[in-house]
Specification:
Elements (H helix, E strand, L loop, with lengths): L26 H7 L2 E3 L8 H9 L10 E2 H6 L4 H6 L9 E6 L3 H15 L3 E8 L4 H4 L11 H15 L3 E8 L7 H11 L3 E8 L10 H10 L4 E4 L5 H11 L3 E4 L9 H11 L8 H19 L8 H7 L6 H10 L3 H16 L18
Parallel strand pairs: 1-8, 2-3, 3-4, 4-5, 5-6, 6-7, 7-8
Helix pairs in contact: 2-12, 5-7, 7-8, 8-9, 10-11, 12-15, 13-14
Length: 367
Amino acid sequence: MRRGPKGGPPGRAPKYHRRMQTTQIDIRSLLASGNVVLGPMAGITEAPFRAICKRMGAGLTFTEMVSAKGLHYNPDAEISKALLTLAPEEVPCAVQIFGAEPELMAAQARRIVELHGANVALIDINMGCPVTKVVSKGEGSALMRTPGLAAKIVRRVAEASGVPVSAKFRSGWCADDVNAVEFARAMEAAGASAVTVHGRTRDQFYRGRADWDVIAAVREAVDIPVIGSGDVFCAADAKAMFEQCGVDAVMVARGAQGNPWIFTQVRALLDTGVEIEPPSAFERIDVAREHAAALVAFGGEHAFTRMRKHVAWYITGMPDAALVRRRANEVASYRELDDLLARFRAYLEEFDGQDIQNTEHRVPFTG
């Protein structure tokens, strides 16, 4: 099993820029060169995490969803600036926006492209978010019930932004209203350059299993690239989705939580047929510390609180993980969090090569 270096502080956090120059390329070519992409997750896929995933082998990365209405009324808000900050490692990337007003969406898409230029590979329109506060405004997955409005949004955003536009949506609103195929055709006719299909209905949220047959049906129904999403938690899952659905790309979302190595593993399996070893506990802790340092450099000292959930994911399955999670939720600063992870790493080093899961062989970590 591969192991990372023992001890040592995380590397210097990267700098982030509001504007960078790069060459814009066609979305089909971009997906062909990197067909395993990182999906947007609110409160999770901030720029530092996207940069780590990119380094680990992710193709296209998607920002967290950004409210077009929020950008319109509060363009200088710190949250707007943070959501629209792109890491230099990830460009060109996709910027995801959401809303239900075509002209407002078009104006903000144009503003985003003016701000970032060729660093924006495409504007992605969220038509799949199932959260009630979004859906109640006719946004997110509610747009699947108003395909005419959804098509108008795609058309106006494509006209105004001058970059490829994609739409991310679900299999349908509910089990009795699965309209992904018809919806995809409408988005293609409106000018979408690609679509992403999550194989669950809005009513499911993230429960149950994703219906990959719906994704395959969409792939058969349209000529534009199709990205498949839903239940990709390991390299074998990604390979299976390619084989079963015939998609142009696979989107990894929850499968990357605490596990950016999934992109390395998927690439290895697809490119060489080899299933590589998962990262060691030491590697996972080292990257967690790097992630925390980068997040604080990006969002300020208070951003360490947003790292708590990531720490819980990074240490899943490790001995005494429950205790470390509790301690992580109790720390009052980034330094305390980093010190906790460093001490936990040192503790694990004492038992390297032993059956650490057997509590008879060790003294539990006390934090």
